[in-house]
Amino acid sequence: MLEKVENLKEALWWQLDKNDKILCTLCPRFCHIGKGQAGFCFIRKNIDGKLYSLGYGRPTGFAIDPVEKKPLNHFLPKTGILSFGTAGCNLGCRFCQNWHMSKATLDNKKSLKVTAEQVVMLAKQHGCPSIAITYNDPTIIGEFVIDIAKIAKEENIHVVLVTAGYITPTARKEIYKNVSAANVDLKGFTDEFYRKQTFSKLEPILDTLKWLKHETNVWFELTNLKIPNENDSLEETKEMCDWILNNLGDEVPLHFTAFHPDFKMTDKKRTPTETLTTAREIAMKMGIKYCYIGNVHDLSGQTTYCPSCKTAIIVRDWHSVLTYNMEKNKCRNCGHEIAGIFSP
Ligand code: SF4
């Protein structure tokens, strides 16, 4: 049973379309949504000619994760981050590693009901310096992100988005206004992969990345989930790194992470660790300063080395920090400045 319409949040980013339909302009899928129907993401619905955000204020639950799990290695290391997601997603990844949430429609019984103020207060009560909207894609609850980030800023709490970056230029400008950091999934580097395996397109994502780098102060890191025989060729890795270096520079951290068989891609094996270590070697040889591997145990592949004196400044194992040799944002050994946000 749905909530009464007067209790729902009217969506931003839509316009009336032909035949009583609504055109949603939040993400580049540009859904045409008929009366009584929801868009591809399940949680933006046309009710009597208005678009509503059904996911607003409806997390599926909360957790306090290590910030390294997002993954963010250059953002407030060793801190806990209050994390939540909602039902739905605007991508259709066949390999989704969180599909129980992303492919769910809103369940009024199981979803919580919270205000933006309550989310921020929860982070405060638990001593978390930041809040992550994660697990599914925060883009689809952009209105809630805006409200949380506005209040969080007043309380000196950071907001982090873990996203695929599939968003329109108009919406991203408003949604990222008070956001401090993001981890953006760069899921592959061919349009074919994006089209067939995620039901989206590569170009708008590259556009979002360039925008984040050149037109915002948002700290961001990239994640590339390597799937055997899908997006793990050496050529594709080299092309991706080349694009990153030419368009985002050499200081955006890049995480190569291991896939496990899930959702509609259960015919593939887990990513071998060697695939990740080879990709990391290529990236670093090409000039990317901070490259990591994830979802496997590999101390060296998860350590931050000072690009100047090569000291191991942050040694990690999985999501735990074992050694910390930083003084504010500098290498404790040689004083070299490390890109990122290292103090609240
Ligand atoms: S946000 Fe949802 S409803 Fe809007 S265009 Fe994207 S998938 Fe469609």
Counted by DSSP, the helix tally is 8
How far the N terminus sits from the C terminus, by CA atoms, comes to 42 Å
Helical fraction: 10-25%
* Class derived from helix and strand content: alpha/beta
Shape: globular
E-strand count: 19
Placed side by side, the strands forming the largest sheet appear as 7-8-9-10-11-12-13-14
Percentage of residues in DSSP E strands: 15-25%
| Unreliable sequence segments | none
Mean pLDDT over all positions = 95
Observed structural traits:
binds iron/sulfur cluster; 24% helix; alpha/beta; 344 residues; 8 helices; eight-stranded mixed β-sheet; three-stranded antiparallel β-sheet
Write up what this structure looks like.
By secondary structure, the chain is of the alpha/beta class. It is 24% helix and 23% strand. It has an eight-stranded mixed beta sheet. Strands 1-6-5 form a three-stranded antiparallel beta sheet, with no helix packed on it. Helix 2 packs across helix 3 (142-154) and helix 7 packs parallel to helix 8. The longest helix is centred in the middle third of the chain and has 14 residues, at 202-215. The radius of gyration is 20 Å and the shape is globular. The model has no long low-confidence stretch (mean pLDDT 95). The structure holds iron/sulfur cluster (SF4). Iron/sulfur cluster is lined by residues 24, 26-27, 29-31, 39-41, 44, 90, 140.
List the helices and strands and how they pair.
Layout: E1 9-10, E2 14-16, E3 22-24, E4 32-33, E5 44-47, E6 50-53, E7 61-66, E8 80-85, H1 99-102, H2 116-125, E9 130-133, H3 142-154, E10 158-163, H4 169-175, E11 181-185, H5 191-198, H6 202-215, E12 219-226, H7 234-247, E13 254-258, H8 273-286, E14 291-294, E15 304-305, E16 312-317, E17 320-324, E18 326-327, E19 330-331
Helix pairs in contact: 2-3, 7-8
Bound molecules: iron/sulfur cluster.
Iron/sulfur cluster is lined by residues 24, 26-27, 29-31, 39-41, 44, 90, 140.
